[in-house]
Amino acid sequence: MVKLHVPRWAWVLTGSGHFFTESFALVRQLEHCDVFVSKAANEVLRMYKLKLDFPETTRVLHDKTASAIPVGEFYHGVYHTVVVAPATSNTVAKCVHGISDTLATNVFAQAGKCRVPAIVFACDTAPELETQAPHGLVKVYPRRIDLENTKQLKSFERTLVVESLADLEASLTRRQAELASDG
Ligand SMILES: Cc1cc2nc3c(=O)[nH]c(=O)nc-3n(C[C@H](O)[C@H](O)[C@H](O)COP(=O)(O)O)c2cc1C
Q: Distance from the CA of 15 to the center of ligand 1, in angstroms?
C-alpha cells in the first residue's frame, strides 16, 4: 500500500465509452492518483480491452460498499483535485440533483462538501456526437435533459465542466501548474 505523504488526485472513471480510452491514458500520466472505478466503468474497460495497470503511486478503488467507504479520505485532506472523466449522463444527472448513491457520485458530492475543486469531462455536450463503441464509431443524439444537466453542472461551485479532450488536457496542465506554484 502506498504511503500518503503527498496530496493526491482523485480520478473517477464512469461507464462511458465516449473518450474512455483517452481518459484512461491520461490517468496513466499522473503520479499520486486514486482511481475510483464505477461498477459500469469496471465492465466497460474490459469491453475496450483495458487493464487497470497504473503507475506505482496509483491506487484503484472499486464500488463495493453502500456507504462509499473510500471517500472518507476526503475528510482527511488527502485530495487536492477531483477529475470525473469520462462522465456518463447518468453520473452527471445524479451529481446535478445532489444524489450520491454510488462511489462516483459520492466522490463528487464529498469533494463539494470538502471544498475540493472538480473537473468534469461530460459526454453529452452537443445534440449530435460520434463516439467510439467497442467495435467502432457510432452516432449518439443526447436528449434535451442530458444537455440541460451538463449545462446545470457548470453552475456548481468549484466545478469546471470540460467538453473536449483538448480542454481536459489543458485543465489538467493548468491545475498541475497551480499546484506547483502553491508549493
Ligand atoms: C460499451 C458501453 C459504452 C457506453 N457509453 C456510454 C456513454 O458514452 N455515455 C453514457 O452516458 N453512457 C454510456 N454507457 C452506459 C453507462 O455505462 C450506463 O448508463 C451506466 O449505468 C452508467 O453508470 P455510472 O454512471 O455509475 O458509471 C455505455 C455502456 C456501454 C456498455
A: 4
Residue 126, pLDDT above cutoff 80 = yes
Residue 121 CA to residue 84 CA, distance in Å, equals: 6
Report the distance separating Cα 149 and Cα 155, nearest Å: 10
d(CA 149, CA 89): 8
pLDDT confidence of 6, banded at 50, 70, 90?
confident
Q: Domain-by-domain residue ranges, the chain?
A: 8-182
Centroid of ligand 1 to alpha carbon of 63 (angstroms): 15
Q: 8-182 sits in which CATH class?
A: alpha beta
Q: Helices (DSSP H) in 29-113: which residue ranges?
A: 39-47, 89-96, 103-113
Q: How far is CA 148 from CA 125, 126, 143, in A?
A: 9, 10, 9
Pick from 15, 62, 16: nearest CA to 35: 62
Cell 483517452 appears where? 22
Helix/strand number for the chain, H first, E second: 6, 8
**Closest residue CA from atom 22 of ligand 1:** 15
Going by CA atoms, what residue is nearest to atom 28 of ligand 1?
A: 16
Per-residue pLDDT at 182 = 84
Q: Which of 48, 90, 132 to mutate to test the pocket of ligand 1 (most atoms within 8 A of CB)?
A: 90
**Which of 11, 12, 14, 16 to mutate to test ligand 1, by most ligand atoms within 8 A of the CB atom?**
16
